[in-house]
Amino acid sequence: MQLLGFTKGLVIAVILAGLLGGPIDILAEEKIQDWELINPEGVVKIEIMKLNPHPSRLEGKTIMLRSNGKHNGDKFLIRVGELLKDKVKDIKIIYSWEVAPETVDPITGSHERSKKFAQKLASFKPDLVIASQAD
Amino acid sequence: MDQLELEKLGIPTVTITTTEFASLARDTAFGQGAEPSFVVVPHPMGMISLAEIRKKAESVFPEILKAATDWQPVVKPTLLAKPAYPAEKLKLKGTVENINAIFLSRGLSLGIPIIPPTPELVGEMLKGTSRRPEEVVGRVPPRMGVLTIELVATHAVMAGCKPSYMPLLISALEALLDPIANWRGITTTTATSAAMVIVNGPIVKEIGLASGQGAAGKMHHANASIGYAINLALGIVGGSKPPTPDKSTLGGPADFVCWIFGENEDKLPAGWKPFHVDRGFKESDSVVTVMGIYPPVDNIDHWSITPEEHVNWWGHLVTPLLSIGGPCWITQMEQPHIIGLGAEHAQLVAGAGWTKDQFRKALWEKARIPFSAWPKGCPNTDLFLKKFGKVTPDTLVPFTFKPQDLHVIIAGGYGKHSHFFAPFPGCFPVSRMVQK
User: Fold this and answer.
1) Is the CB of residue B44 less than 8 Å away from at least one CB of chain A?
2) Chain CA centroid to CA B214, Å
3) Interatomic CA distance for residues B76 and B21, integer angstroms
4) Which residues of chain A neighbour B17 with C-beta distances below 8 Å?
5) Which pTM value belongs to this model?
6) pLDDT along chain B (436 residues), means of 10
7) Which of B7, B11, B59, B99 is best to mutate for the A interface (most A CBs within 10 A)?
8) In B, residues 155-184, which contact A (CB 8 Å cutoff)?
C-alpha cells in the first residue's frame, strides 16, 4: 500500500513538473562550471642528435644505396645507382640488400635491431648512405 | 629509423620517402632529436610497374644529388620546454560536454567521452599505487612525451578506472614502452594493429578483471577502463593521431580500448601450466604480458571430436595469414604468435591426453603453405633460403621457424571458438610483474 502511495505521488509530481516547467530536459540542468584540470598531454623531452656533414662532391666516394625491403625500394635505388654512375666519376656504389641481406626489414622494430643493422651497414665504410623507405 | 643509427656511427644519410609518409618520417626523426636530409617522391612507390618506379627515380634524381652534396646539418639545443612534473593545469569553463569537446579538439582525448581529470580525482587515483607521482614510466613515441605516474593517474581518471587498477595499468604501460614491444611501430603503421594485454595470477581476481565468458568484450569494468586508459595514455602522451603520424589505413575499435583479458586459469586443463609460468614466473606472481598484434582470427570449430581433427582445421584456418611471413617478411617467422584456445577447445585437446607442447608441435606441422604461394619478388628470399634450407615450389613452409614460438593460452569461456593472434612485425611479447 505504501509503495502504491509513493508511485501515485511520483506520477503527480511528474505531471506537475511538466505543466509548470515544460518538458523535462536533464542535460539542461548541467551548469557551466570553472574547471581546473590536469593537462594529460605531458611535456616532450628531446635530446638533439648531432648529424654528419655531407660530402661536397661525390667523385671517388663510396655510396651505399639502402632498401628496407618495401616493394620497389630496390628498383628505385638501382635506377639511382645507374644515374650516379653516369654522372659522377669514380663513384663506387654498394647495394645494401646484396651485401647485407639480413638488414632487409620493412619494420626494424627496436633500437637494438636498428643499431645492429646500422653496424653491419657501416662495416662497408660508405661515405654516404641513400636510403629508400618506399611504401 | 635505421638511418639515424647510421648517423650516430658518423655516416651521413639521405632518406627517400613518399608524399604520404613524409610527415611521419620527419616526426619520427624529430622525436629522436634529428632533422635529417629527406627527398620526397610522389606517393606511391610500391605496387607500381618497373617502368613507373624507374621514372620516379629519374624525376627526383637532381634533388637526390643536391641533398647528397649540398645539405648540411644545423646544430640546435636540447628541447625541454618545461619540467615533466607537476603537469600543467588547464583553466577551462563549461559543462562536462564542453570539456569533452575541448579535449577532443586539442588532441587530449580519443573521441569517446572522458571524465574531466581534476587534481582531486587524480590525487585519489594516485592512492592506488605506492609509486611517486614524479616517477617517469617512459617516453612515449612518436612524440616522445614524458609519461609520469601522475599522468598515468590522469588518464586512469579520464577512462573511469578505480585506484585499485593502478598497479596493473602502470605495469602494462611499462611493458608496452619496452623497446622490443615496438609501440612506435604499432601506433604509426598503416596496419590495423593494436596492443594486447594478457594478465595472469592473483591480480586478476583481486581487481575483478574478466577472464572467462566474453572476457575481452563489454560489461567488464576493469577490462574496459584499463584498456581505455592504456590507449589514452599512449595515444595522447605519444601524440599519435590520424592521419599522421598514425597512418592506419582503416584502424579499429582496439585503437580506443585495447585487447585486455585475464587468462582463464580456472579452465586450464589438468597438467597445463598458466601462460606466465610458461614464461618463467611463479604461479603466485601477478604478471602482465603485452604484445602488438593484428586483429585476431576466430577459429569456429563445432565439429571436431579429436585433437587431430581440431588441429587439422586450425592448420587450414591460419594458413592465409602465413603470407605476412616467409620470404616476404622473415622477421614474422622469428616472432611469437599467440593461440588463444577457448575453454572447450582446450578441453578437447587435453582430454585426449595432449600436452601444450604436443598441441603446438602438431599445429606447427599442419599450418603450412607451399613456397610457391609467395610472390616472386619477396625481399627476404635469399635470407629465407639461407635460414630454412633448400626448397622446391612444393615445399611446405610453417609460419615460425620453431614450434616453441607458438604460445598457447586459455582465452575466454564456453563456446566452440578459439583465437589466433598474429604479431605485428617487430613486436615481441614483454612480461612484467605487477608491483603494488
Assistant:
1) yes
2) 21
3) 25
4) 133, 135
5) 0.86
6) 91 94 85 90 92 95 95 75 91 97 97 97 98 97 94 98 98 96 92 96 98 97 98 97 91 96 97 97 98 93 96 85 76 90 96 96 92 84 87 91 95 96 92 94
7) B11
8) 155, 158, 179-180, 182
From the list B61, B144, B380, the residue facing A80 with the nearest CB is B61
Contacts across the A-B interface (CB distance below 8 Å): 317
Beta-sheet strand order (sheet of B430-433): B259-262, B194-200, B287-293, B430-433
In this structure, what C-alpha cell is assigned to residue B160? 573511469
> Distance (Å, rounded) from C-alpha B122 to C-alpha B213?
32
Ramachandran region, residue B354 (left: φ > 0; alpha: ψ -120 to 50; beta: rest): beta
Interface test with A, best of B4, B9, B13 (most A CBs within 10 A): B13
- How far apart are alpha carbons B315 and A53 in whole angstroms? 53
Residue A60, phi-psi category: left (phi > 0), alpha (psi -120 to 50), beta (remainder): left
Lookup: cell for B232: 589514452
Judge contact between B168 and B129, C-beta under 8 A.
Answer: no
Cα–Cα distance for residue pair A106/A109, rounded to 1 Å: 9
Question: What span, in angstroms and rounded, lies between the C-alpha atoms of B266 and B306?
Answer: 23
CB atoms within 10 A of CB A54: 20
